[in-house]
Automatic annotation (TrEMBL):
Domain (SRP54-type proteins GTP-binding) ranges: 266-279
SUPFAM superfamilies: Domain of the SRP/SRP receptor G-proteins (SSF47364), P-loop containing nucleoside triphosphate hydrolases (SSF52540), Signal peptide-binding domain (SSF47446)
Pfam families: SRP54 (PF00448), SRP54_N (PF02881), SRP_SPB (PF02978)
Entry protein name: Signal recognition particle 54 kDa protein
Alphabetized UniProt keyword annotations: Cytoplasm, Endoplasmic reticulum, GTP-binding, Hydrolase, Nucleotide-binding, Ribonucleoprotein, RNA-binding, Signal recognition particle
Single GO MF descriptor: 7S RNA binding
Length: 439
C-alpha cells in the first residue's frame, strides 16, 4: 500500500504539468492503492472526494503549488483515517485491582517481543508490570517470554507442563493481583494461521481474564492481509488498540490503515527492532510521512539545517555527544523554529514530551539539562554512555541534586535519541572528521 500511495504522489511530483488530469490520475491511483489494501469501497470513495475537496484546486491562486496542495490533502486524510476518534485505554500507575492487557495476533507477528517491550515501557514510568505466558501451543513459548522478561527484570508466570491457556492466564492474573502489580500483560498463542481454534481460544482467555485492553499486534509488512486478520480477531475479542511491529525494516506500515479501519482502534506503539528498547509511541504525523515516503527525507534534513541557529553547524558535523543533546534540549525549550523542526523528526519527541503532558515533558527536559550541567566537559564530549560508570553517575546525581534513577533515565534517553539522530542523513555532504578521545 505504502509503495503505491507514495508512487502516486511521486509521479505527480514528476509530472511536468500539474493539470486536472494529472491530479485526477493521482487520486485514482491512490484509490486503487487503498482498495488493494482492502479498505472498503465506500471509505475509499469518501477519502477520494475529501482529498479533492481539501486540495480545492480550482480555488488555488494561479501559480500556487498544486502538488503540495494534493500532497498535504492526502497526508491530512491519512492522518484522519489513522485516528478512530476514541483514545484507547491507558493503564494507570498504582491502579488496583490491576489493569489487565491481553495481546493477540498471528504467530510471528511479534507478540511476545512486544509484550516485553510494552511491560518495560511502563516499568520505566514507575509501574509494576508483570507478564503471563498463556501460549501453550508453541514449543518454547514460555522460555522465550521468560528470557525477555528476565532481561527487562519483569516478573513472569507460565508453565512447562500445563497445556490449558485459560487456566494459566487466570492463575497468572490472580498471582500478580495478589502481588499488587498494577499492570498484568497476557501473551497468547498465535498458531500458524487464522483458524477457528485460535479465535475460540482467544475468546475464552479474554472471557476468563476480562482484560481492560486487548492489543492486536501486526507485522508492519503484511499490507493487504491486515484487514482480514484484524477483523477476525475483533470478531472474537474486544480489540481496543493496535501495535505495528518491524517498522525498522523496509515496511512502510500501510496495513495499519486497514487494521485501524477493521478494529476502529488507534495504533498506540510501533516496534522498531528486536530488542526491548526498540519501541516508540505512535506519532501519526511521522507515520504518515513515512507511508507517503516523506519521512527521513532530505527535505526534513534541509529543514533541520536551515532552522539550525547560526554557528551551530557543529551540532550536525560532529559526533552526537551528550553535549550535543543538551544543545538540542535547549532549542526545544526555546520553542523557536529549530525546536519545532526537532519535534518533527520521527520518534524524536513523542517519548520525551507526551501528548497532553507537554508541561511535564518540558519540565523533564529541564531536569535532564540540570543533570548535564553537573557533568564535566569531558563527560559531555563523550558518545559512550557506558563510560558513565556508577561512581560518575552518583557524583552527577549528588551535584545536580537529582536522583540516581533520573541520571540513568537521562542516559537511556541519550542512547535512544543518538540512534534516531544517527539515522538522519545529516552529514551526507560533509564527512565527519571529528575524532574524540575516550573519556
Ligand atoms: P510472536 O510469535 O507473535 O510471539 O512473535 P515473536 O515475539 O516471537 O517475534 C517473531 C520474530 O520477530 C522474532 O524473531 C522477533 O525478534 C522479531 N521481532 C519482533 N518485533 C520486531 C521488530 O519490531 N523489529 C524486528 N526487526 N523484529 C522484530
Ligand atoms: Mg509468542
Amino acid at each position: 500500500l505504502g509503495g503505491s500511495l507514495a508512487g502516486a504522489l511521486a509521479r505527480l511530483g514528476r509530472a511536468t504539468v500539474v493539470d486536472d488530469k494529472a491530479v485526477a490520475d493521482c487520486l485514482n491511483e491512490i484509490s486503487r492503492a487503498l482498495l488493494q489494501a482492502d479498505v472498503r469501497f465506500e471509505t475509499v470513495r469518501d477519502v477520494s472526494s475529501r482529498i479533492k475537496a481539501a486540495a480545492n484546486l480550482s480555488a488555488l491562486a494561479p501559480g500556487a503549488d498544486k502538488r503540495r496542495a494534493v500532497r498535504n490533502a492526502v497526508a491530512a486524510e491519512l492522518c484522519r483515517m489513522l485516528d478512530p476518534g476514541e483514545p484507547s485505554f491507558a493503564p494507570r500507575k498504582g491502579q488496583h485491582p490491576s489493569s489487565v492487557v491481553m495481546f493477540v495476533g498471528l504467530q510471528g507477528s511479534g507478540k511476545t517481543t512486544t509484550c516485553a517491550k510494552y511491560a518495560d515501557h511502563y516499568r520505566r514510568k514507575g509501574f509494576r508490570p508483570a507478564l503471563v505466558c498463556a501460549d501453550t501451543f508453541r514449543a518454547g513459548a514460555f522460555d522465550q517470554l521468560k528470557q525477555n522478561a528476565s532481561k527487562a527484570k519483569i516478573p513472569f508466570y507460565g508453565s512447562y507442563t500445563d497445556s490449558d491457556p485459560v487456566k494459566i492466564a487466570v492463575e497468572g492474573v490472580d498471582t500478580f493481583r495478589k502481588e499488587k502489580c498494577d499492570l498484568i500483560i497476557v501473551d497468547t498463542s498465535g498458531r500458524h494461521k487464522q483458524e477457528a481454534a485460535l479465535f475460540e481460544e482467544m475468546r475464552q482467555v479474554s472471557e476468563a481474564t476480562r482484560p481492560d485492553l486487548v492489543v492486536f499486534v501486526m507485522d508492519g509488512s503484511i499490507g493487504q492481509a491486515a484487514f482480514d486478520q484484524a477483523q477476525a480477531f475483533k470478531q472474537s475479542v474486544p480489540v481496543g488498540a493496535v501495535i505495528v511491529t518491524k517498522m525498522d525494516g523496509h515496511a512502510r506500515g500501510g496495513g495499519a490503515l486497514s487494521a485501524v479501519a477493521a478494529t476502529k482502534s488507534p495504533v498506540i506503539f510501533i516496534g522498531t527492532g528486536e530488542h526491548i528498547p526498540d519501541f516508540e509511541a505512535f506519532e501519526v504525523k511521522s507515520f504518515v510521512s513515512r507511508l507517503l515516503g516523506m519521512g527521513d527525507l532530505p527535505g526534513l534534513v534541509d529543514k533541520i539545517k536551515d532552522a539550525m541557529p547560526a554557528g551551530e553547524l557543529k551540532l550536525i558535523e560532529g559526533a552526537f555527544t551528550l553535549g550535543v543533546m543538551r544543545e538540542l534540549f535547549q532549542s526545544m525549550q526555546n520553542m523557536g523554529p529549530f525546536g519545532q523542526i526537532l519535534s518533527m523528526i520521527p520518534g524524536f519527541s513523542a517519548q520525551l514530551i507526551e501528548k497532553g503532558k507537554e508541561k511535564e515533558g518540558q519540565a523533564k527536559i529541564k531536569r535532564y539539562m540540570t543533570i548535564m550541567d553537573s557533568m564535566t566537559e569531558k563527560e559531555l564530549d563523550n558518545t559512550n554512555p557506558k563510560l558513565m560508570n556508577e561512581s560518575r553517575i552518583k557524583r552527577v546525581a549528588r551535584g545536580s541534586g537529582r536522583p540516581v534513577q533520573e541520571v540513568v533515565g537521562m542516559l537511556e534517553e541519550y542512547k535512544r535519541i543518538a540512534k534516531i539522530w544517527s539515522k538522519l542523513p545529516l552529514r551526507d555532504r560533509r564527512p565527519n572528521t571529528n575524532h574524540r578521545d575516550p573519556l
